Amino acid sequence: MKKIIFLTLTLILVNACSRPSDVDDRSEEYAPGKELAGTYALRPAYVNESIDITAEGKVRYRKADSATREGLAYRNRFRLIIFLDDETEPTGIFMLNDRNPERWPGFWKGEVRFIDLKAN
User: Fold this and answer.
1) pLDDT over 80 (residue 21)
2) CATH number reported for the structural domain that contains residue 85 in this entry
3) pLDDT one-digit tens code per residue, 62-73
4) 44 prior amide bond cis, ω within 30
5) In a domain, 22, yes or no
6) Which range marks the domain in which residue 33 is found?
């Protein structure tokens, strides 16, 4: 009987003291920095669309037939996230490990899009 109580208490303590797995990304968020700053073209697009990202995280979205929109960008260990104006949902999400010199796939306004570096 003592063994059963001891095993039960041991299992409870091990379970209570074990570290829960953290599924959410809680890494630090910071400005994009020089390596992600630049002017990017959104592809595919019916009209010219571009995104200017500064090292400090300021974003300017330009579409040929409409006004310019301002926003903010930040990055963490995994992705670059862009918010335009006062939107509460991200406008763009681009995974850092998907980036290559020619194309960077990601999501823009819920669609799969590519951004191409135009100028740095």
Assistant:
1) no
2) 2.40.128.370
3) 998 888 999 999
4) yes
5) no
6) 29-119
The two tokens of residue 23 are: 């599924």
CB-based contacts of 74-81 (< 8 A; 24+ apart in sequence): 74/29, 74/30, 74/31, 74/32, 75/29, 75/30, 75/31, 75/32, 75/33, 75/36, 76/25, 76/27, 76/28, 76/29, 76/30, 77/25, 77/27, 78/25, 78/27, 80/32, 80/36, 80/106
pTM across the whole model: 0.73
Tell whether 60 is covered by a domain: yes
Alpha-carbon span 46 to 102, nearest angstrom: 20
> Do the Cβ atoms of 35 and 86 come closer than 8 Å?
no
